[in-house]
Amino acid sequence: MPAMSKKTADSNRVLSLANGYWASCALHAAVRLGIMPRLADSPADKEELCRELGLDDRGAAILLTALLNLKLIVLEQDSYSLPEELREFFIPGGEKDLSQVVLHMADLVSVWARLDQAVKTGSPLSRQKNAAHDKPGREHFYKAMAALAQRNAPGLAAGLGLRPGQMLLDLAGGPGIYALTFCREVPGLKARVYDLPQAGIFFKEQVAALDAPLPVEFEPGDFKKNDLGGPYDVVWLSHALHGASFEECRALVTKIAQALKPGGVLWVQDFAADPLGKGHPHNALFGLNMLVNTKGGKAYSASEILGFMEKAGFEQREYVGPAGGEKENPNLLFKGVKP
Ligand SMILES: C[S@@+](CC[C@H](N)C(=O)[O-])C[C@H]1O[C@@H](n2cnc3c(N)ncnc32)[C@H](O)[C@@H]1O
């Protein structure tokens, strides 16, 4: 068979980007309809899936064929199941469950579909049509944050230099996975998770699932309006700047400086984008996610993040690298020390 020409490969790249959402939507539907959790439990044939999940025979046949060709499911005799290596990502409530992330991404499709409007107006798309702000949408959002943090948080504490006896503020900590993981890994470290009151219920769920209690409390508050408390030895600010405008970021980082002890450390983790195109494509695309969903947020660049620290008076400001030191990890770490 002749090799594909460069022209064909180039045009294929454009075509795959044009229809890439088909695969995303197939996965979204498979999770929304309960196909993936059902198959994570045990194999089933099409008739069983239709009966148990209330699916139309033709619709199910077409979706199952798509999932099969995407290698998201396998078929043996007449029975569908999940490939062994993917099963744990769809076990509801399991340690590696990614279904809430899939559901959150599915909630965002309707606003992403109108991205061109957001680029023209610079404004987020209407909240009524944005499922992330309704009740199930909010649950998917916080549970997705928890699932993503569960993948990234383990093993980070040592590299952050966290020590027993320190008091850490997990600012905009949401369900509190980072604070809980850090305190589990560093006995003697104490932490406060600070977030909007609506996040409290998701923090409580995480605490209820612990094997043993950890010295982590939840403080409801709005970092734009309220005091942060303190003084703290360390502030961990993960994925909060990208939701705020440039001015709000400046004000927040200044507020953090005031809440830290002298010599205290601010760690920022974010999906920083590279405006010169040499960064992780995920992070640049994440900027678009902020464009369609927030009034002033974006994926700030490394120099903007370090600039917020400089303006707030932090010294020894540095870009440390991807969390965990893995090149592919889009979670980038920045550090600043209060003089
Ligand atoms: C993308 S999530 C990040 C959660 C967590 N830090 C992490 O990295 O997984 C952003 C968090 O900021 C919180 N947040 C947004 N605006 C806030 C505000 N004005 N005050 C306090 N928290 C806020 C949200 O409730 C949410 O938990």
TrEMBL record:
Gene3D superfamilies: Vaccinia Virus protein VP39, Winged helix-like DNA-binding domain superfamily/Winged helix DNA-binding domain. Keywords: Methyltransferase, S-adenosyl-L-methionine, Transferase. SUPFAM superfamilies: S-adenosyl-L-methionine-dependent methyltransferases (SSF53335), Winged helix' DNA-binding domain (SSF46785). Residues 133-315 form the O-methyltransferase C-terminal domain. Coiled coil: none annotated. It holds the Pfam family Dimerisation. The keyword Transcription regulation does not apply. One of its GO terms (molecular function) is protein dimerization activity. The keyword Transferase applies. The active site is at H242 (proton acceptor). PROSITE patterns: SAM_OMT_II. One of its GO terms (biological process) is methylation. PANTHER family: O-METHYLTRANSFERASE CICE (PTHR43712:SF2), PUTATIVE (AFU_ORTHOLOGUE AFUA_4G14580)-RELATED (PTHR43712). This is SAM-dependent methyltransferase. It comes from Dethiosulfatarculus sandiegensis.
